[in-house]
Amino acid sequence: MKILVTGGAGYIGSHTVLCLLEQGYDVVVVDNLCNASEESLRRVATITGKAATFIQADIRDTIALDAIFEQQQVSAVIHFAALKAVGESSVIPLSYYENNVAGTVNLLEVMQKHEVKNFIFSSSATVYGEANAVPYKEDMPLGNPSSPYGTSKVMVEKIMMDVVNANPQFRGVSLRYFNPIGAHESGMIGEDPKGIPNNLLPFVAQVAVGKREKLSIFGDDYPTEDGTCERDYLHVMDLAEGHVAALNWLNKEQSFTGFEAFNLGTGNGTSVLAIVNAFEQATKVNIPYQISPRRAGDLPAFWANAEKAKTALGWTAKRDLTTMMEDTWRWQSGNPDGYAE
Ligand code: NAD
Ligand code: WQD
C-alpha cells in the first residue's frame, strides 16, 4: 500500500515516514524543503534499510501534484506540509493562509480528481482556542485561536467537514497534536529549527550544546503549581506511531466515511520548570535560565483527554519524560548544527 506524505522531510514527517517504512508501507514524500533537508530522508533510509520516494514539489503547485498523483497510485495522504511558526504567522498571515489553507484546498482537489479518499491531517491542540476547559476533548467546539497559524488549522478542519458533506466517499482524520518533542532513539534524525528556536525543547537543547547562552522562561506568575505554563509533551515517535495507528484504523474501518478528530497527547501537563529539571536530570547538563515576561498568546495550561485515540485507535503515548529528554539530547549533541553538517 502506497502512502503520499506531504512535508515528509520535516520533523514529524520524517519520523512518521520511518514508522511507515518499518510497517511495510511504500512511501512517496512531497516536500518543497522550505523548512527541511533531504538529508533527513537519507538518514531514515539508513535506519530502516528502505527508501521513500522523494519528490521536491510544492503542494500549491497543481500541475506538479496532478503529475505525482498520475504517476503514483497512492491510497492515502498524510498531510504535514505547512508553515508552523506561531509568532511569524501574525507577521505574514497571508503566507500562512496561502500555504496552510490554499495549499490544502489544492491538495484536496487533486486528491478528489484522482479519487483518493483517505486523508490524515496534522492538526493541533491550538484548535481548541482559549474558550475550552482542560483537558481538551474532541467533542468540544472549535475555538478561536490567537494566531493566524492556529486559525489556519481550524479553517482546514472546517474545510474537511464541508468536503464530507459534498463528497460522501471522503474519509478524513484530523490528528490534533499536543506538544511533540524528542527524536528517534538512534539520534540520527530530530528537530532542526532554522534560526532561533520558537519552541521550548529545541531552545533548551541549543542552550545545552552551547549555541545559546540561556533560556528565557516566559512568565512564572501563571495560575499553575509553580507559576510556569503547563503543556502536554509527547515523544515524536509516539506521535509518529499515532499516524500509523490512524492509517491502520482507516484500513480496518472500511465502512467509515466522514470526518473524525483524535487528540494525540499523553493526558498529562508538565510545567516549563519541570521540563528544565527533567532535561538537567536526564542529561546531567546545566541549563541557565532567566524569568522573562509572558509571551503573547500563551495559555496557562492545557493537556489532552487522550481516551478517544486509546479506545478507537488502540494508541497511547508510551515513552516517558526521561526518554524524551535523553533522545532530544542524543540528537542535539550528536548533530549540533542539525542536518547542516
Ligand atoms: P516542519 O516544518 O518540520 O515540517 C513541515 C514540512 O512541510 C517541512 O518539511 C516543509 O519543508 C514542508 N512544507 C511547508 N510548506 C510546504 C509546501 N507549500 N509544499 C510542500 N512542502 C511544504 O514541521 P513539523 O513540526 O514536522 O510539523 C508538521 C505538521 O504538524 C505541520 O502541519 C504543523 O503545523 C503540525 N503541527 C506541528 C506541531 C509541532 O509542535 N511541531 C504541533 C501541532 C501540529
Ligand atoms: C511551550 C511552553 C512557552 C520557549 C506551540 C504552538 C502549538 C503547537 C506546539 C503547532 C510555553 C514556554 C517556550 C522559550 C519558554 N505547534 N517557552 N521559553 O506554545 O505550547 O505550542 O507549539 O501546532 O500550536 O502554539 O509550545 O514549545 O512554544 O512553548 O518559556 O524559549 O514553553 O511560554 O509555556 P506551545 P512552545
What does this protein structure show overall?
With about 350 residues, the chain is α/β, with parallel strands linked by helices. The protein has a domain at about 1-180 and about 235-265: 3-Layer(aba) Sandwich (Rossmann fold), CATH 3.40.50. The protein is built from eleven helices and 13 strands. The strands form four sheets. Strands 3-2-1-4-5-6-11 form a seven-stranded parallel beta sheet, sandwiched between helices. A two-stranded parallel ribbon has the order 7-10. Helix 7 crosses helix 11 (about 320-335). It starts with a strand and ends in a 7-residue tail after the last helix. About 50% of the residues are buried. The mean pLDDT is about 95. Bound molecules: nicotinamide-adenine-dinucleotide and UDP-4-deoxy-4-formamido-beta-L-arabinopyranose. UDP-4-deoxy-4-formamido-beta-L-arabinopyranose binds near residues 199 and 295. Nicotinamide-adenine-dinucleotide binds near residues 11, 80 and 180. Its cofactor is NAD(+). It is an enzyme of class 5 (isomerase). It comes from Thalassotalea agarivorans (Thalassomonas agarivorans).
Query: Shape, please?
Result: globular
Distinct small molecules bound, one entry per kind:
nicotinamide-adenine-dinucleotide, UDP-4-deoxy-4-formamido-beta-L-arabinopyranose
* Mean pLDDT score: 97
Tell me the Rg in angstroms: 19 Å
Beta fraction of the residues?
15-25%
Spans of at least 5 consecutive residues whose pLDDT stays below 50 are: none
By CATH, the superfamily of the domain at 2-181 and 234-265 comes out as: NAD(P)-binding Rossmann-like Domain
What's the CATH topology name of the domain at 2-181 and 234-265?
Rossmann fold
The number of distinct β-strands equals 13
> Which class do the helix and strand fractions yield?
alpha/beta
What share of residues is helical?
40-55%
CATH class of the domain at 2-181 and 234-265: Alpha Beta
Q: What is the count of helical runs?
A: 11
The appropriate CATH architecture of the domain at 2-181 and 234-265 is 3-Layer(aba) Sandwich
Q: Spell out the helices and strands N to C.
A: EHEHEHEHHEHEEHEEEHEEHEHH
Keywords: Carbohydrate metabolism, Isomerase, NAD
Enzyme class: isomerase
Catalytic activity: UDP-alpha-D-glucose = UDP-alpha-D-galactose
Protein name: UDP-glucose 4-epimerase
